[in-house]
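Provenance and format

Records in this collection were gathered into a single text stream. Each protein contributes a sequence line and a token line. The two records reproduced below are adjacent in the stream.
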Amino acid sequence: MPSETLDFLKNPLRTREDLQRACTSLLDPLELYTSPKGARIKLGYTATHYDDIAAQLEGFARPLWGLASLLHGGGDYPGHERWTRGFAAGTDPDSDEFWGFTRGKDQRMVEMSPIGFTLAMAPEKFFQPLSQQAKDNLINWLGCINGKDMPDTNWLWFRVFANLGLSKINAPYSATQLKADLDHLDTFYLGDGWSRDGPAGVRQLDYYSGSFAIQYAQLVYSKLAAKEDPERCEEYREKARLFAKTFIHWFDEDGRSAPFGRSLTYRFAMASFWGALAFADVEVPGISWGAIKGMLLRHIRYWTTQPGAFTRDGVFTIGYTYPNMNMTENYNSPGSPYWAFKAFIPLALPETHPFWTAEEEPFPIASIPKVFPSEHPGHIYTHLGGHTFLLSSGQSCHYPLRAGAEKYGKLAYSTAFGYAVPTGTLLLDQHAPDNTIAVSEDGGVVWKVRRECDDARIEYENPSDKANSLCWLRAVWRPWKDVEVETVLVPPHPDTPLWHIRAHRVKTGRELTSSDAGFSNYGQRKDGRALDPVDASSFTSGDDAVLDGKSSSDQPTEDAAWALASSAGGVVGVRDLTHLALPNFSASGRKGEVTILDANTNIMFSRSIMPTIIGSHLGSSRDEWFVTGVFALPSKLGQDGVPKSAWVAEWHKNPAVPDAILKIINGA
């Protein structure tokens, strides 16, 4: 059965019944992969840093986020008995399907979280039917998480949920451990609803700060522990209200969310915060229930347009919009993507809840700022130019994550164009440094990109009136001890909404080559062939084309390097704007080119292409500035390409370099 015929991919996802059916349609395929006694679900053969039994437990436990919500809300799924049997077998030390007791920093700890949630939500389905011996085994197995060494991260929430689940079935649990974990987790809080994923010094604020873990966990806890811990629960609810004001800027009108950070194979867990708001009955001033409903359902609907997210028999693939091991982390097993089932939490609500009775509303694009700076994550969000994207500086993973520089250190992340990860270590096509500046000391064979920044900050032209002031991001990184690169990122201006600006200062003690690339784009023609180079003077259609080189007579500036790629994904390009900031600048050191990236680099397009400007830096140890304009207009979801009439006039405009940025460049 081809994946395109899966019921989930045909689901309109408009109603509570639609969401129930979406959940069960993704539960059904798991039966084929479930062990005889129900305790393990083995979905594939790829490895992780943890053992395969833990990976099979992951496949068993993560669907419970959705199944427990479905049953709590009065829904029915006869196949739930597979999990009930699995609880008995998986926690029995004498069973051949025993999961094993957890050690310190063990993956089993992670999967105790959905199990604790399930005991709290649906004990009559999963706990009460067990024999007394099986109940005792489950209690002992879950309780062994207490007193064990855990990472100082969102993982502490997994122990909170294990103890919370035990308390809800009146089983022995550690109230002391529960409070200690919550008290420590609260120290991660920064402000404006944001918590970092770790202690002081960690600058990692991604979906784990929101939908994947911290905000989601706080909201669920605030509902389940409201009587026992009312003051803390109200604090969590208020933090969620604040967080929503920023998190809405991660989404676009088509339901897509900006790919940023790690664990993106969790797919529509990216939007589960909106469902958790409803579950916790948290009203957000300025964001109606209809808008919240739309945020969640539109996002899940987006995934119904991505058949590559599923195998032919309806199991999640490891990847993003298609199977892609290049983008994964070493903790992604075939069962990992089922963290997505967190998004099904509104199924726990009755049909009379305002989340379900409200009419779905479109994305509130007219009522939110088109440019929105957020200090704690170090982002500037923009909804200009036909897509949502964020400019970013200052974040990095707190450990050496695979493709960590790409997941946190790039300059821009788009809901429509995604980002690319490396497939190798040679040449631009393998490094795939889209939306970032990369530097090479060997003429372009091996490249370095920004991973960690120094002194990253948001600056304002008028700090006393930030709400009405031009803002920009500014950060420094050092690829080698004798090389310093400072980058200033300027969001789009309403007069040129398809452009944003980057100004770079390079100080180097060695000869370098630089690449300053824009968004990568879908890399094929409509007939499936590779995009063809087209001379700019003969480019008269709005169809698939690759253009690069010096400006020709139809370009606004005759002495500026540029590159452009138009395809079914939309139009992306870059142009050298240094002459607008430094009138005596010679463009001879920069040239435009379009690089065909290695297959399976861009996480959204398996075949992709990248416009960039290549520069030369002679190692003078003096500050050298150059400025790049980055152009992008995506096609609408479900459409192939953008007609030339929709973008060519904007491409012919030069975005103005703001006076405040000119002062920085010229040292004023």
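Adjacent record:
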Amino acid sequence: MKKITTALFTILTVSVFAQEGWTLSSGKVEKYTGIVTANGRIGILPEDKPFATRSVILNNVYDKEAPLGVSKILLGMNFANLDMTIDGELITEENISDFQQTLNMKTAGFTTSFKFKDKAEITYTVYALRNIQYTGYIDVKVIPTKSISLKMTGKISTPEEYQEPVSTFRVLRDLETTMPILQTVAKSRFGRHIVGTSATFIWHAINSTREHQRPELIHEKVSDYENYLSFEKELKKGEVYEFAWTGAECSTQDFEDPQSESERFVIFNLLTPRDALLKQHKELWEDLWQGDIEIEGNLEDQLDIRLALYHLYAFSRGDSDLSIAPMGLSSQNYNGHIFWDTELWMFPPLLLLNQDISRSLVNYRSDRLGKAREKAINFGYKGAMFPWESDDTGEESTPAWALTGTFEHHITADVAIAFWNYYRVTKNMDWLRERGYPLIKAVADYWVSRAVKNDDGSYSIKNVVGANEFAPNVDDNAFTNGSAITALQFAVKAAETVGETADPSWADVASKIKLYKFPDGTTMEHSTYDGDIIKQADVNLLSYPLHVIDDEETIRKDLKYYEPKLSPEGPAMGQSVFAVLYARLGDAKEAYRLFKRSYEPNKRPPFGALSETATGEYPYFATGAGGMLQVVLFGFGGLDITDDGIVQKDPILPREWKSLTIKGVGPDNKTYRID
């Protein structure tokens, strides 16, 4: 009887979690990769130690990486580290038990809990507040199991690369309201920005603004790089004690006076009741999750898919006109620059599920159209030429030694394709006239000037690095040519839509750009390709998402030929493309195999953060998240972006799933369910 009861309990537990599918939990593990809490402006990356945070990343705030280097996103001042001392003993990972961490994707809260000896149970949750976008909030609960003396220390730790830090503590006053503020202000590594960071404790059970009602605060400036604020409290056994630590970080990228602005954000959090503050944060995340994907019958896949979508939402916001770097706000990898990763991989899922965020992504590019026009002129072309790596300026920010920055030109077509797709989904004519068409037109003019006419009347695009970056400086790269064809064709449609006359050369060049074939009809990766290992599924992108190659025979030939050519050292997106195509061909088994291969080898313990490659250690790879989500939406879900908007064609379900439900699709928030 006992065995039956245990089995039944296990089944019920799994069922409950399958129904929920919102949380990822782990105890202490040997290898650890944390999951960032982010709000599109700042990212807070926790560690597997009590009250420890690895980093704070600031979106779109750059300084040079080195005196002769390119720009690099800033590692922010870390305001999210705390120290807790009980009865004079500092809590560390060595003297605690029952350590547990849980990411709640629904509320974007990262909770850590543990026991300190037989003296106390401690829980705290880290939020990057969606509503107060330059701030973080750490909500702490202490339950003494014995009477204890508690000391809590909040810190602002400034990375050594900052210049001239000034660390202070002040108690600001307005009539009877007192506001204690710990603060550090410093210049970024080469002085391009001033960064101001403020922080304070919040006590929920009392009026924290009255100085005589809160614990005495002790300021300790260890150095200008280490600024501490502490309080002490005697707690009786069973006396639940709750408080919070909040910090705000601002820079001259976004504010004329980042010091004062960071103080105001902290004061707002200090004087706003916790329930109201967190309620608004959670409501904003509830709005985001109106666009969601539900898998019935496979809890692991549900959690993997939702974690991917969580990261795309966490790394972006609809009111920012900012884009998403390959690693989002989890690290400084790739210098926090913006690549084709956004337009080709992350943008399509967001375009289906959240048009506000997708508008920010395209607006990021139109805001930098002027610099793209300058680049085209500087390289002897017309129109607009977008950088391979972009930062806040819109100029080329790829390191000069990397050939991609000088020769990987398909990015210019990728941007225009994303723009037309945004219009196709939203039908926002005002946006198309003001932002969309001017950019699409400039891109079309670029490709006409970039293409070279051959003796037979065809056109070639020469000397490029394609999506397959293992083959630099080749002629007629398949994806570069296919994306140029598509961008030119879209330009003709965009002109007609806004009532303009399309330049006749757009359609002429598009119809005559060369694509090379092997004798059996398989598409060649470039004009001299002879079977080398490839980094990306370059050719296969012509079938999805470009629709340049649409006949089933060629699609199958290209799939069969290029899947074995894909390097295990390359990023996982190639497998995603293969999976989408097999799903659209009606082969659910092959599609699911490649879907799992597109990300599963890249998962890192304990929560499943995606690394860029199966052998690499650089999570979280938001580009990979975009790829796997496209398999679900555009492969199994059968969704497609057309001139008529979002349509569904021949969805197909892997046998591992009972159903697939896609919610909040398009401006009408449609729901698609496949059983």
